Structure formats: structure tokens, C-alpha cells
Amino acid sequence: MAHIALSTSASASATLLLPFNRGAKQWTNKLVPGFPKRYGTGFSLFPNKVIRFVGSGVTVANGGVVEISEGEKAPRSYVWQDNKKPRVCILGGGFGGLYTALRLESLLWPDDKKPQVLLVDQSERFVFKPMLYELLSGEVDAWEIAPRFLDLLANTSVQFFQDRVKLLRPADHLGMNGPSRSRCGGTVHLESGLLIEYDWLVLALGAESKLDVVPGALEFALPFSTLEDAHKVDNKLRTLERTNFGKGSPIRVAVVGCGYAGVELAATVAERLQDGGIVQAINVDTTICPTAPPGNREAALKVLSSRKVQLLLGYFVRSIQRVGNAEASEKLTDSEAVPGIAAEHDHEKYILELQPAERGFQRQIVEADLVLWTVGSKPLLPLLEPSDKPHELPLNARGQAETDETLRVKGHPRIFALGDSSSLRDSNGRLLPATAQVAFQQADFAGWNLWAAINDRPLLPFRLETHTLASIIETTQ
């Protein structure tokens, strides 16, 4: 499969995974605290978007001291094993959260300062999201890119809870709780009823796809950012392939968004369907991957062209409707008809109304058997417990926590935020992209700055390192 090179591309990510030999057991052996330093920052820039807290029971790794049965809601306090040592609670087990925990594990600590680390995530598995696309191409199975947290953390002192966050009550707001050396930083309330008192908190909750901005998208479009999403898309493609087998009518797939994720997804689906499908990629910008270096963008365009992906650039989706065969045919006038649409289908079809984003473009109607959505995301920060005291987290318009250069949330010296949860900007004032590479690099700094804060040392400002891999278009058999 030919991978697209996009400033630390998916092919680079796949190459970095080769030492794992794929599989949860190999991940356990290789994902040691020294892993970030060994492999640097060569992770994909594809969005690492989603953490949905949907679990209810508590799963405890490494001999945790609290057990809560499924469905139990009565509040109970988590008992840390040693109340004299710092207590670090990390919310979210994606690239940012997991690698912050591993970074803390790898650092050298005075005996009385090494923190107890608790990682909380809704899922039992860490998902290497840059390789979700390979599930669609059949190159990997789910277990190969989604090892269990229990396995990854088996040889560490990090504890793991499978649960979801309900409320957050910080107690470190400036001017209200004394200096930053105060013992307790706040409390996290989990859905299971467990209360976790922490000294230091890391917000790495990721984000969820935002489909409610366009009529019909929430009902009819499929996102592609979680393992569950990938399974749904794969199952839908399998159904379409069975339904259309031997009929000579192509499977029509519309991919909304031509950022990193949309481009990779369109290329993967087109490669899977070959001549049996028509893939159309829609983007509001007049170019794909507008933030990518020109060389990487050109490489991506070549791959899309070689796979016959049709680009509809300079359009935004105004609405998506599900229609029957007869109704779909009536909606397509002669001037709007899309070449290659079969007269009859045995399954539902969707109509996308495209509105031009610039003058000179004409309104278009696109018919599709499957609509994939890769634009828009909503950070998943927990609610704050109601109080008459002003301890709200400062958020930007996107719902991300405002942080300083050291990744600490402004006004909250005991809370760090990274990845999709952070609104950190680069030297040019632009928001850092919500990608796996950024979250991975921030985890390294977050771990170090927690060490520095606990040991009364200066914190380091985060600086993003970029590695251009424009020459990489790797072909694997």
C-alpha cells in the first residue's frame, strides 16, 4: 500500500511500528518509559481526535486498592497507597495522557518525591490512531493496533482505571488556596461514583467529532476517529461490496474534509474499492491540507490522482439527506447529474448539497452510498462542579483550556493540559494542530514540567519540533 507523506506521515508511523512486530504482547515489551526518547517525534500528523467517556465500571491495573461494581453510584473516595508522595491524576489515555504517564515513570526521582500516577480512560485499550486506516485496507487487525492499557502498563507503577469523568472540582485557583505548594489540587468525580483527590492533574481528554453543524450529518454521516468508527466504516463497506457484487454499479463514497485525516481516508477507501468505487473528497478550501508543507501537499495530490479520487474543492456541505432510489433520481437535474450513477440501487443513498465557498463556483449535488465525515471536533473537557467560587477553567472559543507555554492551565498551577484539551499557540500565534505528533511531544514536556514543579525547579516552555518527510512515499507489500 502506498502511503501519503504529510509532514511526518502515516507511512512514517507504520515504519516506527515495525519494532513492535505488531500485537499487544510486543507493545508491552517495547512501550517502555524510554520509548519517546528512542523514537523521537516521528509520529503522524493525522488528527488524534476522540476520547468518549462511555464506560461505567472501574477496572484497576497494578493492584489498585479500590473496586467498584458496575452500576454503583454512591460516592467513594479513592485511597492512594502513600499519601506522603505526590498524587498525579491523568485524564485521557491517548498519545498525550499515556506518554505523560510513561515519561513520569522514566524520570529519576528522589525517594520521597516520585509521584503515584493514576491514568483514567473510558476504553480498556490504547488505540494507535494513525493506523486506523490500515483496518480498512485489511493490513492489520484491531488487536494489532489497540493493545490493552493493562498490558502496556504491566511493568510500570502506573495504575489504570477504566471509567469516564463526570465532574471536576479544582482547588488550586490563584488567590484562593494559598501558594502552589498547597497539598490538594482538587477532586475528580468519575461516573462510577469514585472521587479522586489529586495534587496534580493532567487534562488529555482528546475530542469528539462534531457532526451537528450541518443538517443531516449527525444522522447520516460516519466519523472516522475511533476504533469503533473504523469498525462501523469497515462493516458498511463490506455490506456495500456484497450488495453491489456482480452488478457493475460503482460504490459511491463522499469524504467530507481534505485535511490530513480526510486525504488519507479518501486514498485508503479508493485503494480498497479500486474500479468498483468512486470516491469524492469535498473541502471548503481550494486546496487540500492547507497547513501542510507544499512538497507534502504535492505528494498527497499525486497519490489521490493515482487512485482516481475526485476532488471537489471550494465547497462546503449545506445539508445531507437520505433518499430512496426514485427520489434520488428526481433530485438530480440534467445539469447536476453526476456521471456514473447507476439507475437502480438496492440500498439507501444520500444526497449532499454543496454550496460554493467562493464566487464563480456553481452549486452542486453529490449522490453517495456512504458519507464519511472528517471535519470539526469538540474538546472533551469535564464539567466543573457548581460552586459560588470562581474557579472555572479559562477556555477559548473552541472549548480548549487556555494554557501558558509550560502547558499549565492559566490560573491553575496544579493543572496541565495538552493535545486537544490545550489551546497552545506557536510562535506565529497559530493554534497548534490537534494531531498525534503534537500530543506526543507535549507529553514529553508535561512529564518533565511535572517533575520540575514537584521538585521546585524551573519549568520549560513547550516548543514544537517539526520533521519534514516530504520525500517519503513508502510502498509496502
TrEMBL record:
GO biological process, any? aerobic electron transport chain
Q: Give cofactor(s), names only.
A: FAD
- GO CC aspect terms: chloroplast
| Coiled-coil segments on the chain, per record | none
Keywords on this record? FAD, Flavoprotein, NADP, Oxidoreductase
Q: Which residues form the FAD/NAD(P)-binding domain?
A: 87-443
Q: Does the keyword Membrane apply?
A: no
Q: A GO molecular-function term, please?
A: NAD(P)H dehydrogenase (quinone) activity
Q: What class of enzyme is it?
A: oxidoreductase
Does the UniProt entry include the keyword Transmembrane helix?
no
The family database entries (Pfam families) matched by this protein are listed as:
Pyr_redox_2
Sequence similarity: Belongs to the NADH dehydrogenase family.
Q: What name appears for this protein in its UniProt entry?
A: demethylphylloquinone reductase
The species this protein was found in: Quercus suber
State which gene encodes it: NDC1_1
